[in-house]
Amino acid sequence: MKDIPYEDLIEAAAGCRILHAEGHADMTLGHLSLRDPQDRGVWMKRSGIGLGEVDGPEDFVLIDFDGRRVAGEGRIHKEWPIHTEVLRARPDVNAVGHSHPFYATLFSSMDVELEAVTNEAAFLGNEVARFDETRGLIDTQELGASLAAALGGTSTLLLRNHGVLFAGATIPEATLMGVFLERACRSQMELLKTHQRYVATPRSELAAKREQILDPNLVENFWSFYKRKADGLRRRSAEGQTFPG
Ligand SMILES: [Zn+2]
C-alpha cells in the first residue's frame, strides 16, 4: 500500500499501549485514531484486539469521513463516527481517543464536578465536557456530530455510563489527556471515599498551572516516560513475568 504514514502510526500504536497500561484497558474495546496527513480520512486502531496488543501500522485501518475503508486490513470499530465527526468539527485536533477506563467511567455516572485535587487534573484545564444523550454506542454520524458538539473546544469529555473521549493536536497530547483524565477521576474518587473535607486547586489558578504543566518539554518528557513504562511492561509480559491484564 502506498502513502502509509509509518512513523505517525508507530507513535499511535505506542499511544494505544500506553492507554492500556494506564487504566484504559477494557478487553478489545477502546480506540485511538490519527488524522491522515494527506486528508484522506482517519487512521483508526483496528477492531478485535485490545489496546495493549497494538503492535504497529498494520493494526490501523484508514477510513474516509463516511466510514468507508480506504486502506488497511482488519475490522473497523462500530464507533468510528466518534473519530470522523470530532476531526470534522475540530481542525485543531489530529488525534482522538475513546475508551472505557474504570474510574472515569464510574465518575461519569455521578453528578459531581471533576475538580483539580492533584497536579494532573490541572493539566485538563477548566472544563471536562459531558455527554448523556445516549448510554449506547456512538455508532451513527448523527450521534458522532452530537458528541463533537458536546466536546466543543475542549480536550476531554465524560460519556455518562459509557466512557471517555480525549483529543489533541498530536498523538502524545491526546494520549496524555486520556491518561490524566483517568488519574484525575481516580484521585477525586479516592478522596470522596474518605468522606473528609478537602480543597481543590482554585479555578483562578487553573489556567496558570495548566500553562506550567503543558510546557512542551514536559509533555515530551511525560510521553517518553509513559512509553518506557508501557514498553517495560510489554517486555516483561512477553517474557512471561506478568499477565497483560
Ligand atoms: Zn465505547
Summarize the structure.
This protein has helices at 6-24, 80-89, 102-108, 119-123, 141-151, 171-194, 203-213, 216-238; strands at 31-35, 42-45, 60-63, 69-71, 95-99, 129-131, 156-159, 163-168. It is α+β, with helices and mostly antiparallel strands and 245 residues long. Strand 7 and strand 8 form a beta hairpin.
For this structure, what is the CATH homologous superfamily? Class II aldolase/adducin N-terminal domain
Range of strand content: 5-15%
- Name the hetero compounds present: zinc ion
SSE run: HEEEEHEHHEHEEHHH
Number of structural units classed as domains? 1
Spatial order of strands in the largest sheet = 4-3-2-1-5-8-7-6
Distance from N terminus to C terminus (CA atoms, Å) equals 33 Å
Write the CATH fold name: L-fuculose-1-phosphate Aldolase
CATH class call: Alpha Beta
Tally of extended strands?
8
Unreliable spans: none
Structural class: alpha+beta
What would you report as the Rg, rounded to the nearest angstrom?
Answer: 17 Å
User: Main beta sheet: strand number and arrangement?
Assistant: 8 strands, mixed
- The global form is globular
Q: What share of the residues lie within helices?
A: 40-55%
* Number of continuous helical runs: 8
Any idea what the CATH architecture is? 3-Layer(aba) Sandwich
Description:
- The chain has 245 residues and is an alpha+beta fold.
- The protein has one domain (6-229): L-fuculose-1-phosphate Aldolase.
- 45% of the residues lie in helices and 14% in strands.
- The protein has eight helices and eight strands.
- An eight-stranded mixed sheet has the order 4-3-2-1-5-8-7-6, sandwiched between helices.
- It is globular and about 55 Å long.
- The two termini are 33 Å apart.
- The structure holds zinc ion.
- Zinc ion binds next to loops.
